[in-house]
């Protein structure tokens, strides 16, 4: 049974606090192993990557076969059905259209003394995208990571996608092609992250690494952070549905399960102002679980981490939602737009009964790489902004330096930084002489 | 003697590569100590913070005196001279005017099937700013960290500023007041970061922590990252000056020294197309070093990490500058604006002979918290964007779900995520029945 909470209950605050602080992640501590792997790749390059791939993925590669050849890619892509291809192309088009609007603008203007101030955005030169192998090898994630980079103007976009036992995912290769990826290396794990960060004889280093991965990949990304940029370190996924009784309990049930089926550590929560409806949804979940293909994953997730929270009104739902700061938030109730407008902390909001989260996972347009574990309080989903950076600009006129230079000197002196002051003073003396 | 390189020399590439990979940081490994301090603060709260402050800062605090009182702040601020106050106010006004322009815009639009797509920006609720004690207690850094947060709309902005032996910095307190800081705790080190991230009986936790600090502070920020947001982990500061012979060598020399005086690990590099000018600058540095107050710091920085690089033309200067990806870049040459426009990787550019970097450190308007150690390749300086986060929005119409839902189902099936597909299918069945 998942948790049932009611905000009327005496122990609600304590129970809700427990729900918030529930530890769902139990990544093994692989940091020492990962440190060794990174050091090995830095020292031996290709040879280390090839050896580790033989060990972990049972694949014998050479420097020449680290990457898929153009022919291999075409052969794999030919296996994609027309229906799948059309779906992926529609997804790519919609994701691109959404992210096209995210490009930030340069700015420059004149200050009060004729000085120019502003900034300029430029794209990261090279980005590497990690795509997990096996079950969690998702073509949708390729689109969600690569298209923002492509829109940003990243010139060199490469993928590392392990192919355990040589099994490739044709849809992943097609997704890579649709989003402008140049090279796909069939390597994975910490060795792939190390190769992307430091380079090898065959693999050029990149400036930014994004994409999901297992505990080894996450630990490696943490370790190379600073040398290169990384996206977030994502935790288990989560969904919060706010729904009133005017919904089909079965729709809400499958939405909750669509999160639960990702991972036994995933979390699905329903907040409703109607206890009977909450019970009806829980019943519908149990019904669906009987036949769901991934019930061995979704079942434990729902039992261990699922929750139905009954509130007295939708104001309370908004307050509790912001305390959860959910990765995904579905709002299916009267005045859903108004409720959505009052939410402050959420990675993505899906408004109305016709917007199941799965639409956002694949094809809506917004990114599906979103902040987990309450980090929507301070961070955002992946976007074009992750692949650009800003250079600030300033150009003083002699008049501007005369006007504001003395204040800079005063502050430099107060901070005990004499040369800072002298760099202004030397110029002001010349200007005063003229 | 600093390094002298000439791009004509046979061994230039190797020498320049050494310059790029020079290890300047030698932070002690304090991670284990920091882990203990964080655990202690989580377990014992105020009591741990108070004990550690007594040990490290020789200050006996109580829960009631952890923060400065309003009276104490006014008493300290009264010590600031009118000249210093005016300078700080001018700096705050200019920094605010610059950052006001950085607020990103919300967006929403209709897709091809009447669906609504968009995003909304909201401010982080609470931010904590770390201000080092002692020599590196810079009021300018308070403005540079707090004003972007204030502009973003952060409601609760607090500072942790240790006061070793009880000595406070009146200008820091004034800067805090000018930038809307609510509370100033006189605590520092890893214990302050732990208190900000996890809260204590007296100190409410925040969502984001920014600001510079020593090795303990940096290690603590790394450890609490994820629980809260952090800004970058900054390395030693650096400047690159691109200058032709039409400059006063002494101006360039003091600019190089204004970086060198920060820290023995700071790096100052001149790139010039005129070898004689390069030598003249190096001579001017030596002259200035004879009398500079902080020569004991600036001297070793210049000797150990300084460099003069002679290039054949300004095209080469641009190429080398992008390989350095400098934190601060001064461009003082003919067509400086054109050269600036061609630079891709730099934290901040100061254009023309009348824009010494010190202007940017204090009063120009742009932020002085900038990416170090070549990280301008993939990251930006501090800005309003660091204190806001984006929630993506989507609202499908029945028509939109009919149009794009089947593609989502196809992709869900391809990824083996049945419930994802069912969440779309359940709705489409109803719509098809209608």
From TrEMBL, chains A, B:
It comes from the Bacteria. The keyword Acetylation does not apply. NAD(+) binds at residues 130, 191, 214. One of its GO terms (biological process) is L-histidine biosynthetic process. Zn(2+) binds at residues 259, 262, 361, 420. Its cofactor is Zn(2+). It holds the Pfam family Histidinol_dh. GO terms for cellular component: cytosol. Its EC number is 1.1.1.23. The keyword NAD applies. Binds 1 zinc ion per subunit. Keywords: Amino-acid biosynthesis, Histidine biosynthesis, Metal-binding, NAD, Oxidoreductase, Zinc. The active site is at 327 (proton acceptor), 328 (proton acceptor). Substrate binds at residues 237, 259, 262, 328, 361, 415, 420. It catalyses: L-histidinol + 2 NAD(+) + H2O = L-histidine + 2 NADH + 3 H(+). GO terms for molecular function: histidinol dehydrogenase activity; NAD binding; zinc ion binding. Pathway: Amino-acid biosynthesis; L-histidine biosynthesis; L-histidine from 5-phospho-alpha-D-ribose 1-diphosphate: step 9/9. Belongs to the histidinol dehydrogenase family. Catalyzes the sequential NAD-dependent oxidations of L-histidinol to L-histidinaldehyde and then to L-histidine. PANTHER family: HISTIDINE BIOSYNTHESIS TRIFUNCTIONAL PROTEIN, HISTIDINOL DEHYDROGENASE HDH. This is Histidinol dehydrogenase. The gene is hisD.
């Amino acid at each position: 049974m998942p948790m049932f909470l009611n905000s009327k209950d005496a122990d609600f605050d304590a129970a809700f606090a427990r729900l918030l602080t529930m530890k769902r992640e139990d990544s093994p501590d692989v940091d020492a192993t990962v440190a060794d792997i990174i050091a090995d790749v830095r020292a031996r390059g290709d040879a280390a990557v090839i050896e580790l791939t033989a060990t972990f993925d049972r694949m014998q590669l050479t420097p020449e076969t680290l990457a898929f050849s153009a022919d291999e890619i075409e052969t794999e892509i030919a296996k994609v059905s027309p229906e799948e291809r059309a779906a992926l192309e529609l997804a790519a088009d919609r994701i691109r259209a959404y992210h096209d609007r995210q490009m930030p603008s340069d700015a420059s203007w004149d200050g009060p003394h004729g000085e120019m101030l502003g900034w300029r955005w430029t794209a990261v030169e090279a980005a590497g995208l990690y795509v997990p192998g096996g079950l969690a090898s998702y073509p949708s994630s390729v689109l969600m990571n690569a298209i923002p980079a492509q829109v940003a103007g990243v010139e060199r976009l490469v993928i590392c996608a392990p192919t355990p036992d040589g099994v490739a995912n044709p849809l992943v290769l097609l997704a890579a092609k649709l989003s402008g990826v140049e090279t796909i290396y069939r390597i994975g794990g910490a060795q792939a992250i190390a190769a992307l960060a430091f380079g090898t004889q065959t693999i050029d280093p990149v400036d930014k690494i994004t994409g999901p991965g297992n505990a080894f990949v996450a630990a490696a990304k943490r370790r190379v952070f600073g040398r290169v940029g990384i996206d977030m370190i994502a935790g288990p996924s989560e969904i919060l549905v706010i729904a009133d009784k005017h919904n089909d309990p079965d729709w809400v049930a499958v939405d909750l399960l669509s999160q639960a089926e990702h991972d036994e550590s995933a979390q699905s929560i329903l907040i409703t102002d109607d206890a009977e409806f909450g019970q009806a949804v829980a019943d519908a979940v149990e019904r669906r679980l009987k036949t769901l293909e991934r019930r061995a994953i979704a079942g434990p997730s729902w039992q261990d981490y699922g929750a139905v929270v009954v509130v007295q009104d939708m104001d309370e739902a908004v307050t509790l939602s912001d305390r959860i700061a959910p990765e995904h938030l579905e709002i299916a109730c009267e005045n859903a737009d108004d409720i959505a407008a009052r939410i402050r902390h959420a990675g993505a909001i899906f408004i109305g009964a016709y917007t199941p989260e799965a639409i956002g996972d694949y094809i809506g347009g917004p990114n599906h790489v979103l902040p987990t574990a309450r980090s929507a309080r301070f961070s955002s989903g992946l976007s074009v902004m992750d692949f650009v950076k800003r250079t600030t600009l300033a150009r003083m006129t002699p008049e501007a330096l005369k006007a504001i230079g003395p204040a800079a000197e005063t502050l430099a002196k107060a901070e005990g930084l004499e040369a800072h002051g002298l760099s202004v003073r030397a110029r002001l003396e010349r200007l005063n002489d003229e």
